[in-house]
Amino acid sequence: MKKNLLNFQYEELVKEFANLGLERYRVDQVYDWVFKKKVFDFSSMTNLSKEHRRQLSENFEVSIPKLLDVQVSMVDKTTKFLWELGDGRTIESVLLFHPDRVTACISTQVGCPVKCAFCATGQSGYDRNLSAGEIVAQVLAMELNRKVNIGNIVYMGMGEPLLNYDEVVKSVKILHNPKGKGISMRRITISTVGIPERIVQLAHDLPEVKLAISLHAPTNYKRDQIVPLNKKYSVEEIIHAAKEYQRLTKNRVTFEYVLIREFNDFADDAEKLAELLRGIGAYVNLIPVNPVSGIDGIVLGRPHHWALERFKEILEKHNIECEIRREKGTDIDAACGQLRRRHLSGAGKFGQRG
Predict the structure, then answer these.
(1) Phi and psi at residue 263, in whole multiples of 5°?
(2) Which residues are identified as catalytic?
């Protein structure tokens, strides 16, 4: 069985090539073809001899997912991809376009076991973790498809990254390697709903990577209702881990807060959140719940504009930097899990668009 070349870190691949009698610089050549030129067929790597190409083709593959669907926003060019993996399972990735950069939002699991109330991914179930190679391949596939150079990566797609910790860390190191994509650690963000022991471990293993914590409520009573995992890891445990992470890394921590009308958007919620974040160098993203979100047939309402502004003003009064996130891709299935969920339900005809 062929090995997926993207599952190996550079030094691991040097050893694998050595077992075939290939020198270290052959890894550099292959890395250049794969990560720089987006050539994934060994037979096309013309600066390798025919014998070396044959050897590599017999032992390795560069496994890139098959594109099932793509949607492009007419508003801001946000591009949503649905990919099919080698085993037929599907995942999503998103490209976000900014004036000075292109950001990839990538998945770490097929589905998600966390099942947050407002997230379409969790509602479609959970199958398995992605390998490091499957995570890395999303970046390469999007660059090839859209002819762009991705400079920032957020692990905010399908799945809970810290429940697939080892493969996520490995994929970060692969994407960071200067011989490959060479993405700066400071341009990579890992988003988590909050796995306290992994947050602290991340501070040791990848201290330069940015951390975003999806909090969504300032009390256990409310968070239990929308984030089931909170019953295992309390708000207090997560905040304690965030403080320890910050002590170790000196990095500011981003907190994601999805606002749901007349649930967690009250002035009292803002005051409690400000108290909770006291002593943390924090940045808060305020996110109106997605308009198509719902669970068990109950649609979760978007907050009124005045409630959003009130929430923001209260946090700022307590000297907490925050912003109301400007939504991207509102005219497509841009929220995580929607496109895959529609595909699994068999709704609509799929094919490449845009």
Answers:
(1) -125, -60
(2) 92, 336
> 321 a known binding residue?
no
Q: Is 116 annotated as a binding residue?
A: yes
Which structural domains are found in the chain, ordered by start? 3-61 (1.10.150.530), 66-345 (3.20.20.70)
Q: Which two tokens stand for residue 227?
A: 């984030």
91, two tokens: 């995942």
Summarised one tens digit per residue, pLDDT across range 328-348 is 666 665 556 566 666 666 644
pLDDT in tens, 7-28: 999 999 999 999 999 999 999 9
Least confident of 87-96, 105-114, 117-126: 117-126
Q: Tell me how far apart the alpha carbons of residues 133 and 8 are, in angstroms, rounded to a whole number.
A: 8
Average pLDDT of the residues of the chain: 92
Global pTM value: 0.92
Q: How far apart are CA 303 and CA 323, in angstroms?
A: 15
The answer to whether 191 is a known ligand-binding residue is yes
Q: Taking the alpha carbons of 42, 188, 337, 79 in that order, is the dihedral positive or negative?
A: negative
Alpha-carbon span 297 to 353, nearest angstrom: 29
**In this structure, is the dihedral angle defined by the CA atoms of residues 149, 79, 167 and 63, taken in order, positive or negative?**
negative
Dist CA 122 CA 132 (whole Å) = 21
